[in-house]
Design a protein that fits this description.
This protein is 79% helix and 0% strand. It has 137 residues and is mainly α. Helix 2 packs across helix 3.
């Protein structure tokens, strides 16, 4: 099931880029990001309400709060830079560059989370990096 969710995520991420590029015509990228963020916020709380999971908020620890807030700050920064990049650049070049985040995830997962590093991961990460360079340059 995770693969289906992953593929749906990829499809909607692709639509995000195309729709944003069209929607940002003569619009400041920061304003566009703020509008997008408001929509995401409303959608997320609707899902929490429909699934009746809001009660879980009382069970969050201080560590949960700190790292979820930091994750939100990182998301916000990512979106602001991403929207600026697609506004002034070609989506077909910005998106592959943005997907280098996969490479950074591998680096951070090994160094911060101490996840195991395999030869398969090294090869895959190298191929992603090489593929990104081919698409962008």
């Amino acid at each position: 099931m995770w693969m289906i969710y992953g593929l749906l995520s990829a499809v909607f991420a692709a639509l995000t880029s195309i729709l944003a590029k069209i929607g940002m015509d003569n619009v400041n990228s920061n304003l566009a990001t703020a509008i997008r963020t408001m929509v995401v916020l409303v959608m997320a709380w609707i899902v929490v309400g429909v699934t009746k999971t809001a009660g879980g908020i009382t069970q969050l620890t201080r560590t949960n709060w700190i790292f979820l807030i930091l994750s939100g700050v990182a998301t916000g920064a990512s979106w602001l830079f991403y929207y600026k990049a697609i506004q002034i650049g070609e989506v077909s070049k910005v998106v592959p560059l943005d997907k280098l985040s996969i490479v950074f995830v591998f680096i951070f997962s090994v160094t911060v989370l101490k996840e195991p590093l395999s030869i398969k991961t090294l090869i895959g990460t190298g191929l992603i990096t090489l593929g990104t360079l081919v698409l962008v340059l």
